[in-house]
UniProtKB/TrEMBL annotation:
It comes from Natronolimnohabitans innermongolicus JCM 12255. Signal peptide: none annotated. Residues 356-425 form the Argininosuccinate lyase C-terminal domain. Keywords: Amino-acid biosynthesis, Arginine biosynthesis, Cytoplasm, Lyase. One of its GO terms (molecular function) is argininosuccinate lyase activity. HAMAP family: Arg_succ_lyase (MF_00006). Belongs to the lyase 1 family. Argininosuccinate lyase subfamily. Its EC number is 4.3.2.1. One of its GO terms (biological process) is L-arginine biosynthetic process via ornithine. The lineage of its organism: Archaea, Methanobacteriati, Methanobacteriota, Stenosarchaea group, Halobacteria. GO terms for cellular component: cytosol. This is Argininosuccinate lyase.
Length: 452
């Protein structure tokens, strides 16, 4: 039958649904309409398709857009289904839409077009999180808290210093996403199947109509590369990893009574009536696992793929959608949880000096007075073994050096070094936790946030 187009012969049979990306392509339905429009406008401007045919195609695309993805005829993917819908509306002339292109450059353009907006949304959530962290920091430059290494009490710090630390990490996450954005925002359209076209197309024009900054120049590179997907998913995964650490910290702080999460960011138990659990942050923590898994899946799919287009790429795309959705939501939730949490200053102050966490400051004091730091470390370690504190230090001075503590440091200075508030105030080195050092960090963070 002459009227049966070649496509119908390759209907897919029992493998139809396995071959089809139509359902997942709902994500790029709008993008495909835009890509079709830009392509058709360019074809008309170049005299490749008659103006009146182009006009009919554009009118059909408007109607198809209104009807939505759900009304599309069956097809192997959204590109084929939209073309079929155009032909159903205006007849065979609608088939001119696919002149001088392939689904290979088309799908790459659609993914980039849609991913741009998704990545910008992800960037927005990183900005909101940075704002939330900075607000916490600005309100708590004097709120001392225990600082940990190996999750053991290490040295007193402040809530501001802690929050600014995460702000710094999220700031780099923003940058990585913006850098990925720059490389997403390049037009592959006009690459055709991979080998260019005989038609006198204007790739710069379609790039301009679609708001792409520049071209992916080489047509084979344009149609078949997906490193832009990989770096986007990696950047998102890195951000999710930052979020997971932040979530874990807050979960631990909540557990120790240092912070109260707002009810909106907590859950209770269906059986234990007293429970208030940090479930939102546990889910944030878990998203990093999903993102790492998607990065692994995508990398493995892309690894060893020959140039040019291979259908494997269809399954590469979904990793990006899942990751950008999950990480954006996690980032947003983390920002909300941080913004609404209450810090318990009394609990934090009471615990700031626990575990002889001011020991390093005492060793620093002795070293500043001329004792070799290693000797000071030994002396204070000896005191730590006997419970820490002033009396233990006096014993240690006698036991280790055979000298009274007073000969090594002024008693008032030792008392100050043992005090968590003084301990924090004295660590005013560049980037340190002393309130004025943190104030400088926050100034820089504010400037960076308004620049991003
Ligand atoms: N749906 C495909 C994808 O997502 C695009 C179609 C290209 N198909 C092809 N057989 N060349 O990658």
């Amino acid at each position: 039958d002459e009227s049966v187009v070649r496509r119908d012969r390759f209907s897919g049979g029992p493998a139809r649904s396995f071959l089809s990306s139509l359902a997942a392509d709902e994500r790029i339905f709008e993008a495909d309409i835009e890509v079709d429009r830009a392509h058709v406008v360019m074809l008309a401007e170049q005299g490749i398709v008659e103006d009146d045919v182009a006009g009919q195609i554009l009118t059909a695309l408007d109607a198809i857009e209104v009807d939505g993805h759900g009304s599309l005829p069956d097809g192997e993917d959204v590109h084929e289904a939209i073309e079929t819908a155009v032909i159903e509306r205006i007849g065979a002339e609608g088939g001119k839409m696919h002149t001088a292109r392939s689904r290979n450059d088309e799908v790459a353009a659609c993914i980039r077009y849609r991913l741009r907006e998704d990545v910008l949304e992800a960037v927005e959530t990183t900005l909101a999180l940075r704002e939330a962290l900075l607000e916490v920091a600005e309100a708590h430059t004097e709120t001392i808290m225990p600082g940990y290494t190996h999750l053991q009490p290490a040295q007193p710090t402040t809530v501001a210093h802690w929050a600014a630390a995460y702000e710094g990490a999220v700031r780099r996450d923003t940058k990585r996403l913006l850098e990925a954005y720059g490389r997403i925002n390049e037009s592959p359209l006009g690459g055709a199947a991979f080998a260019g076209t005989t038609f006198d197309i204007d790739r710069e024009r379609t790039a301009e109509l679609l708001g792409f900054d520049k071209l992916v120049e080489n047509s084979m590179d344009a149609s078949s590369s997906r490193d832009f997907l990989l770096e986007t998913v990696q950047a998102l995964s890195t951000h999710a990893t930052t979020l997971s650490g932040l979530a874990e910290d807050v979960i631990i702080f909540a557990n120790r009574g240092f912070v109260d999460l707002a009810d909106d960011y907590s859950s209770t138990s269906s059986i234990m009536p007293q429970k208030k659990n940090p479930d939102t942050l546990e889910l944030v923590r878990a998203v990093a696992g999903d993102a790492a898994g998607a990065t692994q899946g995508l990398t493995t799919t892309l690894k060893g793929l020959p140039r040019a287009y291979n259908r494997d790429l269809q399954r590469a795309t979904t990793h990006a959608w899942e990751t950008v959705d999950a990480v954006t939501e996690a980032s947003e939730v983390a920002a909300g949880a941080v913004a609404t949490a209450d810090w318990n200053e009394d609990e934090l102050a009471a615990e700031a000096g626990a575990g002889f966490s001011t020991a390093t400051g005492v060793a620093d004091l002795l070293a500043a007075n001329g004792l070799p730091f290693r000797t000071a470390h030994e002396l204070v370690a000896h005191a730590a073994e006997n419970g820490g504190g002033y009396d233990a230090l006096e014993d240690a001075a006698r036991d280790v050096l055979g000298e009274p503590l007073e000969s090594l440091a002024d008693p008032g200075a030792v008392e100050d070094a043992l005090d968590p508030v003084e301990s924090v105030a004295s660590r005013d080195s560049h980037g340190g936790p002393a309130p004025e050092a943190v104030a400088e960090q926050l100034e820089g963070a504010r400037e960076a946030l308004s620049a991003d």
